[in-house]
Design goal:
With 258 residues, this protein is α+β, with helices and mostly antiparallel strands. The chain folds into two domains: 105 residues, no CATH class; 116 residues, Gcn5-related N-acetyltransferase (GNAT) (Aminopeptidase, 3-Layer(aba) Sandwich), CATH 3.40.630. Helix content is 24%, strand content 23%. The chain contains six helices and nine strands; from the N terminus they run H-E-E-H-H-E-E-H-E-E-E-H-E-H-E. A nine-stranded mixed β-sheet has the order 2-1-9-3-8-7-6-5-4, with helices on both faces. Strand 1 and strand 2 form a beta hairpin. Helix 2 runs antiparallel to helix 3. The chain is globular. The two termini are 28 Å apart.
């Protein structure tokens, strides 16, 4: 952990850099990506280059971002994105863009306390073994409950798991990011906020920076961030080769994915 955190808060750009580093390979490139990510705040922007981008393209991408002005606001497309697209198209076409806000879950974040919240550091989870909501493979669900996929919190109501906050990607020494799912019939009732706050409570003692990110189109997820009063630190803009194949939604740490 950056020792400055104890005395001097990290800037939004520094936080976005820590968030992005969870996806980096040994060359400090975005693993498995033919494209770039631009992390944007009101005060600056950062470029991260994918591992599948030819090395000869990298200087031009860096120069394009350095020369481009900031967007009027982080949620507006950075002018550098168009320049990066022109550079990348010969190697990474077809390209697509997706973007969304990134939030920091600060230590004071709390949610309404409910009964029926199970947590990975709590009592044995055997009673949840038969409550797979259906969007996890059976072995993947076992891995989750056994702690192999990182910390989690679940809301149980009316005999079913109705909301889950888990750790969808590997944690680093500095950072962890949550992923949240809520059954459509139970949305808008505060369950997502509660499991997110519980997940953060589990990890708070680790000293990691805790992140919550979502897509621009995911209004319900942004409402959860608003409900918890999460701190918006910026937006990330991903310009990368569109994947025509079916996306593998399994957790990367699950046994069958390794």
């Amino acid at each position: 952990m950056d020792t400055r955190q104890a005395s001097q808060p990290l800037t939004d750009l520094e936080l976005l850099k820590i968030e992005a580093e969870r996806s980096m390979d040994d060359r400090y490139r975005l693993s498995g990506t033919c494209g770039v990510k631009i992390s944007s705040t009101r005060d600056g922007q950062l470029l991260f280059v994918g591992s599948e981008v030819p090395d000869t393209f990298v200087p031009a991408l860096i120069d394009a971002v350095d020369r481009s002005p900031l967007a009027p606001a982080p949620d507006r497309e950075p002018p550098a994105l168009a320049a990066c697209r022109e550079i990348l198209e010969p190697a990474c076409a077809p390209l697509s863009v997706n973007a969304g806000p990134t939030y920091l879950i600060e230590p004071h974040v709390r949610a309404e306390r409910r009964t029926g919240i199970a947590r990975s550091d709590g009592f044995p989870s055997e009673r949840l073994r038969h409550l797979n909501p259906g969007n996890w493979e059976p072995d993947e669900w076992d891995d989750l409950l056994d702690g192999a996929l990182g910390p989690w919190a679940m809301a149980v109501a009316e005999g079913r798991v109705v909301s889950i906050c888990h750790t969808p990607r590997s944690m680093t020494k500095q950072a962890a990011e949550c992923g949240v799912w809520t059954h459509p019939d139970y949305r808008g009732r505060g369950y997502a906020a509660e499991v997110t706050a519980t997940w953060a409570d589990i990890l708070r003692a680790s000293g990691r920076c805790l992140f919550y990110s979502t897509d621009a189109q995911n209004v319900s997820s942004q409402r959860v961030a608003a409900r918890l009063r999460l701190r918006l630190i910026g937006w990330t803009w991903n310009l990368a080769r569109a994947d025509p194949g079916q996306r593998d939604n399994r957790h990367p740490l699950s046994r069958r994915s390794s």
